[in-house]
Structure formats: structure tokens, C-alpha cells
Amino acid sequence: MDTIASVSRDSNLYRYEGFCFFKELMKPEFINSLQDFEIREDDVFMITYPKSGTIWTQQILSLIYSEGYRNGTEQIETSEKVPWIEFQAVSKDGNTDPQSRPSPRLFASHLSYRFVPRELKNKKAKIIYVMRNPKDVIKSLYHFEAMAAYAETSPNFDHFFQKFLDGDVFAGSWFDHVQGWHSHKDCCNILFIKYEDMIMDLRSVVKQMCVFLEKELDNDSLNIVLKRATFNEMKKDLLANKENMPEDFFDFKIGKFMRKGTIGDWKNTMTVAQSEAFDRIFQEKMKYLDLNFTWNINENRSE
Ligand code: A3P
Fold first, then answer.
1. Can you identify the CATH homologous superfamily of domain 37-143+170-285?
2. Is the confidence at residue 303, as pLDDT, over 60?
3. Exposed site from 62, 132, 210, 273, fewest CB < 10 Å?
4. Ligand 1 within 6 A of 264 CB?
5. Angle 272-285/134-147 helices, nearest 10 degrees?
6. Which of 13-17, 175-179, 288-292 has the lowest mean pLDDT?
């Protein structure tokens, strides 16, 4: 435990081997115990850095896997259908142990490669890793921080920008998270998906997911998935938009999970100097990864 350190800009967090965990919700002993989480062949893990499309993908997976969810006979929130492995929360159906769920189990996680269950690293289960251009992650997280009771709200964007670059936020450094997963892609049965591709052509991305998951959907079912996963549909869908979450966690008068749902909103807040500084850091830190992002909504796919 000697690798545990405090996080200078957020006293709610502790840093442990590069990742920042919530002190109250994620005890180190529990996090370490996840190494032994028993994986089944038909498990599916959806992994993201925060604000990269997590609840969107939770909704899509819930729709792909459950006919009852698609046709409205199953009124279960997506956070129950695709529960977290790293938060020690009691689920609404009284099941406190996500491990005992019936197969096929769907899970969500923000964990870095270092902390996920050992057996995930031998291709036993399927992993979908969703990533988003980090400038929009910064913007989205900046707003999210303000509504989250368990995060120290930054006095201004400049402060938050630096906090993000230093990885003083839940989940730690975006660069380390993406690098950690991407550089281990050959150890895992993993599909990388980009938020921007979902925005630009959700049908293709959902089809790609179905092939990876070996789930065949007929045309009508696919159309329901696509309709129920649009921003506007999800915004009003209490099973998907997280607005049922306890008010002691989030102040929904300040903000929403479903905020703008677009590409390039960073431009409305980030200064040119900040953007250029970010580009330099991005080039340096990501130079060994073969990864391109779409930064603007009207951009050609060649960056
Ligand atoms: P913005 O804050 O930029 O609007 P996460 O679920 O990982 O916390 O990510 C939240 C971000 O995903 C928010 O981004 C939210 O609006 C966006 N999002 C959620 N559902 C979406 C959808 N159906 N279409 C587009 N964006 C969506």
C-alpha cells in the first residue's frame, strides 16, 4: 500500500499506481480484490475513461442484449443491466454482488489496464473500449465536475485544464488510460470504438459491435437500438440518462449526464493557447500510438 498518494487538487481522491480512486467509494482492498474477479467466457466488459460515451454504450449494450429492454417490457435501468465492477454500490434489485449475475454478464468499468481482473488479460471475455477526443473529454468533465458532489469543483476552466493535464481527476491521466489499454490490445479480446464514429455513423458502429459480440439483430431490432440510442431519446429516457441517481451524488439542477452530445464543443471554452499547448502534449505523449481522433464535427476523417 506504500504506492498510495494524495491528489493535490482533489482531496476526495487517492492516487494508486497512476489511477485516481474515490476514497469513500473505492477502498484499496476492494480494488485489489478485483484482480481475482472470476471471468466467464461470455462476459462483456465496456471500458471507458470518464465522459467518453459510457452511458451511451451502456444503453446500446442493454438494447442489443435484451429483447425485453428493446420492447419496453423490461423496465430496468442501464446501470443495473451493465453494472460497474469497481463501485461498491448496492444495486436496486438488492443484489450487492455483480459477480453472481446470470450469464451473459455485461459490465462497465473505468479502470485502467493495471487494475482490471487478471483473467480479462487472457482473451477469455470480450472488451469494448470506447474513447473520445480528449479536448471534448476535458470540456465534458469540466461540466460534470461541477454537478458531482464527490469532486472538488474547479474555480475556473484554466484551473481544471491544468488539473486534467496533471491527471488530478478521477481515473487519473487520460493519456495513461488510453495508452495502457491500447498498448495491451494484443493481450485482450478487445474492440476499440470512438465516440466520434458513433456520432457520425452509429449504424455502422452498432453493426461492428454486433459482429464482435456475435449477436445477430434483425433489421427491426437494429432500428430500435439506433432510435433508442439517439441523444434526444436518451435525454428523456430515465432508464438510460442516469437522472434517477441519488441527489447526494449529483446536482441535476447544475448539469446533466446528457449535456450536448456533440463533437468540438471544446472550442467554445478552450483558448487557442490552451488548445495549442494541449496539441503539443498530445503529440509528445501519444507519438508511439497509431491513434487519430476527430476534433471537429465537420472535419474530414483524415487528421
Ligand atoms: P457532453 O458532456 O460533451 O455532452 P459518459 O457517459 O462517459 O459520462 O459521457 C457523457 C458524454 O456522452 C456527454 O457528453 C453526453 O452528452 C454524451 N452522450 C451520452 N449519450 C449520448 C448520445 N446518445 N449521443 C451523443 N452523446 C451522448
1. P-loop containing nucleotide triphosphate hydrolases (3.40.50.300)
2. no
3. 273
4. no
5. 120
6. 288-292
